Amino acid sequence: MASANLAELIAGITPENMHGTVDFSHPVGLELVYEEMIPVADNLYDQHIEALKAEGLI
To answer: Which domain of life does the UniProt lineage start with (predicted)?
Structure first.
């Protein structure tokens, strides 16, 4: 799903698919956004931890 951009994902969110109630076999609505954002958040967290370690703060 890396080829889809965040704007396209958000544009596809409707009241009907917002919670994935239409089709549970594939991620829909906010699930698509979360699927894209979790790796980004994990990467930012890892970078933050490495920066704190480099500063000797942890």
So the answer is: Bacteria
**Cα–Cα distance, 57 to 5 (Å, whole number):** 36
Cα dist from 30 to 17, 25, 35, 54, whole Å: 8, 15, 8, 35
Instruction: Encode pLDDT of 5-39 as tens digits.
Output: 777 777 777 766 666 554 555 666 777 777 778 88
Domain ranges of the chain: 6-54
pLDDT of residue 39: 83
Instruction: Read off the pTM.
Output: 0.42
| Residue 34: both structure tokens together | 């979360």
**Of 48, 49, 9, nearest in space to 32 by CA:** 9
